[in-house]
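User: Hey, quick favor. My workstation is busy. Could you predict this chain's structure for me?
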Amino acid sequence: MKKLKLILILIVGLSFEIQAQELDVNLQLRPRFEYRNGYKQPISYGQEGTSQISQRSRLGINYKQDDLIVKLTFQNTRTWGDVPPATVADKNGVAVFEAWAQYNFTEKWSARMGRQVLSYDNQRILGEMDWAQQGQSHDALIVTYQTEKQKLDFGGAYNSTAENVVQTPYTVANYKAMQYAWYHNQFNENLGASFLLLNTGYEYAPNPAPSTKLLVDYMQTFGPYLTYKKGKIDTSFWLYGQTGKNTDQQVSAWNAAANFGYNITNAFKVGLGYEFLSGKDSNDGSTVIKSFNPIFGTNHGLNGYMDYFYVGNHLKNVGLQDAFIKLNYNVNKWQFALIPHVFLSAADVVTPVNEKLDSYLGTEVDATFGYNFRKNVTVTGGYSQMFGSKTMEFVKGGDTSHTNNWAWLMISVDPKIFSWKK
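Assistant: No problem, here it is.
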């Protein structure tokens, strides 16, 4: 056992003094099979669906000593077969998903710096994006003030492509600078409220270029998120606005949603929900951005699991209305869910010949299951089908008369392989 402790410490490159208090090492292996036949958009006429297996492999090290907390997470994401069996180098290599240090100055004040996950409320605006095998993390500095019922985070980031010596365009598809403030107050055991103010700056070269100087335009996303839970009732509501500028274009957009859940029994829960994300008429020739952008949200968990909307797509488009029902049933080690969605555009869909199409985009039905096979081993899977309209075909392309469906099966193995406390 002593040899194992020494090997782990040497591998991760951490130096411990004898007063070290806590050390945990966690492993995650997560292969996922997917059958894609109209995933993200209707499959085109004459094309065939495809299937593949992707995998996430993570090694996480957590260390705590007095008021200092350190986390380091390595990960590799791959598609089975993307390199041959006898390869000498991995295609994606090993990446650092998290690498941060936190110091607790007092019981209420702390600061965290480094590569880290930014996840707040229901992750509509800032989330971990855990469904994606690569996840989502930021290089940032956060200062936190926290009491028993309140929490206030101030965060900021400033990005560059490398350690440059002269002005160099930031060519990464990401913000150049970001600042945010998030405040949460848990008024009582039933009512909680948060408010987010996010300022994101994107760099661009002016066109026509009056000079060689690069510019940064800032877009603001702001609004409240409310939750109310009492007895069998579980509700949430949010309203976000977007303003400012993005690459020399004015922004004027908004997002609102309401969800209501009711536990009929301890095992069976029913939910109703509606979300509106503003869009822009397809024949609107103005340069104003009227389509809401969830920016860093965990969008797979919202607006249907087939990822037709806001998962790397549907930006600066006609927006979305999403009305849905959630049916959840949990029994023993099993979890089942059925979620039908009805999608409509939020703005007018107009063809090049000035024909206004119906706002109805389609209906998606998502069915999922989960089974806790044993401690640290979970099996999940699901089947989804999209019944798209001609309006969906116009907006997204492809062939909606084709059967458009998606199925997946995932195994998550998450053991704690090493733990030490002194």
